[in-house]
Design brief:
The complex is a heterodimer of chains A (252) and B (339). Chain A is an all-alpha fold and 252 residues long. Chain A contains eleven helices and two strands, in the order E-E-H-H-H-H-H-H-H-H-H-H-H. Classes of the chains: A mainly alpha (252), B alpha/beta (339).
Chain lengths: 252, 339
Amino acid sequence: MTAVGLGFDVPRTAAVVRKELADFRRSRFIVATMGIFPLIFLTVPTVTILARRVSATSPALTKELGISLLYLLLIPVVIPSVTAAYAVAGEREQGTLEPVLTTPVRREELLIGKALAIFLPAAGVAYVVFGIFLGVVRLAASPAVASTVFAAPEVPAEAVFIPLLAAWSIWVGLALSARVGDIRAAQQLSIVSSLPPLALAGLMSFNVIHPTFGFIALVAGGLLVIDGGAYLLVSRLFDRERLITGVGREGT
Amino acid sequence: MTVVSSKPRDAVGQDGDVAVDVRRLTKKFAGRTAVDDVSFQVRPGEVFGFLGPNGAGKTTTVRMLSTLITATSGAAMVAGIPVTPGREAEIRRRVAVLPESPGLYRRLTVTENLEYFARLYGLPDRPARITAALAAVRLADRATTPCGQLSKGLRQRVALARTLLNDPAVMFLDEPTSGLDPVAAHEVLGLIGALRERGVTVFLTTHRLDEAERLCDRVAIMSTRLRTIGRPDELRRTLFRRTLAVATAAPLDRPDQVFGGLPGVESWQADVATGDGAGPAGYQLAVSDPVQDAPAVIRALVTAGADVVSAGEPRASLGDVYLELVGAGPEGQAPEDRS
C-alpha cells in the first residue's frame, strides 16, 4: 500500500515505527526519561496550584497558573529531544544505519517512521500528564482556583501547543542526530535547541503577553509552518551519502 | 611497485552475462581520491574477491555499487540495472550488503531484527523466509535471543541471515570475518562458501588473503586504483617466475657444472642458508616448466653424486601476489583512513 502523493510506502513506514517503539521500550535510558521528567513536571505545578488558597481573580494565581502550564509544556519539548537525538546517532553508533540504508526504504519513510515513533509516546505522555493535572485541579483544588484554571486561555493553548512543540523538538533532535556523531552531545544540543519556542509560552506565562484565543491560533499557525519547514530541512540532511560518510554529494 | 593493469585483463563476456559491471569508476571526497578509474566485471554466480589494504577504496566501491553513495565519475551496472539516479530502490531490492559491522539492534531479538529488514524489503511470506534464513546459518535455536546476548561470531551469522532474506542476485560482503576468532571466522567462511551453491554472486572485500584464496574464483587487488584482476593461480603465474626448488643432503661442490648445462634451466641460485659446507643445501632453479624439467635436474644431481632430499615447485601464495602489488613502495602505502 503506497500513500499516493505522499511518496512513501505505509507498511514500510509502519515497520520503522514498530521497530523504533520496540527498541525504545527496551532502552532503560529512554524509559527513564519518559517516566522521570513527566513526574517532575507534573508534581511541581500540581503542588503549586493545590497549595493556592486565593480568590479567582488574584493576579498571583494567574501567574502561577502560567508557570505551572509552562512546566507541563516542557514535557513535549524535553522527551522528544532526548529520543530524537538518539534516533540516528544511536543507529550510527551500533552500526545499524548502513544496513538499513541499503534496503529499499526511502528517506521519507525512515524519517516519518522515526518521527512518529517519537511523537506518539511523547505527545501521549504529555496529554496524559496534562489530563492528570486538570483532573487533580478539578478534584482537589479550591473551587475558585479550579474555575480560574479552567477559564484560562492558556489551558486550550496547552492542548494545541503540545503536538506542535513535540514536532519541533523531534525535527531539531533528528537534525542534530543526523549531524552529530556522539549520542550524549546530540541529546544535550537537542534539548537546548528545542527550547526557543517555549520563550513565547514563557512570555504568556509571565503575563508579558496576554493571550487571547486569536493570538494562540496565530502562534499555533506559526509553529505549524515552522514544523513544516523543519521537516523539509531535516529531509535534506537525511541524504544517504551524508549519513554514511559525513559528506554530502555536493562535497564530492 | 608493479602495476599490472588498471583495466580488466580478462574479459568476462557479453553484458548480459555480467552480474557487476564497473567502468572507470572514480570517487573523490573533498579533493581526496578514494577510488580512481576502476573497471572490472563479475560473472553471475562467481565469488569475487576484492582485496586491498585499509583505505584502498574497497568499502567505497561497495557503497557506490550498493547505491549508498554516488560515484564522482564512471558507470556501473549491478544485477543488470544501471547504477543511475532513480534506479537505486530497484538495485537495493536485488542486492544485499553485509557491512563490516553486523549492524544489529542489540535490544531486539534475532527474529525481530530479521522481521524488520524483511518488512523494509517489503517481502511476502516473512515468517517462512526468516525461518529459512536462520536455518541456512544454523541459528534456528537462537531466534528469540536478543542480539546483544550473542557472541560476535553469532551476530555475524545473524547478519548473514539478514542478507539472505531478499534472495539477492548480488551479495556484497565487506570484511565479513573482521574481528572474529578463528573458529567463528571458519564458520562464517563456510557459510559464504555455501552461497556458491545457491548461485548467488558474492562480492567479497577483504584483506585476509587466506580467505580470498580459499573462497574466490577471481580476485581483484585494489589500492585506490585496480592493481590486477584474475584467478589466484593466474596471478601467481603472471607475477612470479616459475622455479624448481631442490634440496640435497650436502652442498654441491660445483653446482654450476651440474645445473649450467641443463636445457630448461635458465638460471640458478643457492638458498641463502647454503654455503657453510655442512648439512643440507637448497637451490632455486629458474625453469620454463618445473614438471617437465624436474627429471633432468634430478638425473644430473644423481650423476654428480648428490643425495637428493626433495625437488618441487615452490608455490607463491596470494599473499606474495598481494605484497608484490601493494605491499611496498609509496603507491602501496595505505591511505590513513577507510573511506
